[in-house]
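D-ribose ABC transporter substrate-binding protein: structure, please.
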Amino acid sequence: MKKVFKFLSVGLIAGIMTGTFAGCGSAGGNTNKIGMVISTLDNPFFVNLKAGAEDKAKELGYELIVVDSQNDSSKELSNVEDLLQKGVSALIINPVDSDAAKSSVIKANSEEVPVITVDRQANGGEVKTHIASDNIKGGEMAAEYIKEKLGGAGIIAELQGTPGASATRDRGTGFHNIVDADSNLNVVSSQPADFDRQKGLTVTENMIQSNHNIQAIFAHNDEMALGAVKALNSGGLKDCIVVGFDGGEDAINAVDSGELSATIAQQPDLMGGMAVESAKKINSGESVEKEISAELKLYTGK
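Here you go.
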């Protein structure tokens, strides 16, 4: 009888310990480990976002695991699932597509892991805080600059970002808030080029074939703007005004050299750092604002 009791006691203790360790592995995992899911690392903007997050994580003593979704929403969900398996205490998500990101957020919610979105929103699930520039304001800034440079009237084209991304929607909304309110500004073409330089070049080539009198282009990011500049130069439209969005190194250099007219400069490194800092606050039980905005600046050269 004593042997039976001893066996049961050991089994009971083992069960309690297993339950204890299982509890530690869920609902947040390792408080010093944060996951970061980035839409694509082929874009310099997101490389800088990653660098800012890594610097802040190192400063705060966190392990930051960064993964690349390669502009694929299904890979984004897979990345989130992998990070949850690794026991991260918080997830920073830069969505590929705002609607598709809902699945990733809900998956993290089911594991009780807090979610922070950065640059692009997720249209669903519970997000603790969203960190981004005011993209609507940025679109308005671009339109106002173009309007001024055109002297109040002209023919304009628009290179849109990835369809479904909140940055695409908001930058376009801000831009059209200004141009659609003025009958002297005529937007003859608005086409997506997926935030990609090569696609920006190709789409612009097609635009100017059918509208050779385009006087200005607003691109929803610098990569597309730089592609547009190349197409315009090849097409003999070097005087066309081109405004990008992000303020990346290549764009800043292009503005300084006179190739690019202007860029709406974001601060991706700051945004990455703010995301990690927010994760730390959430893990510590502190409150964070539902939306955190990073300042934008119109850059027109040195």
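Notes: Residues 2-25 form the longest helix (24 residues).
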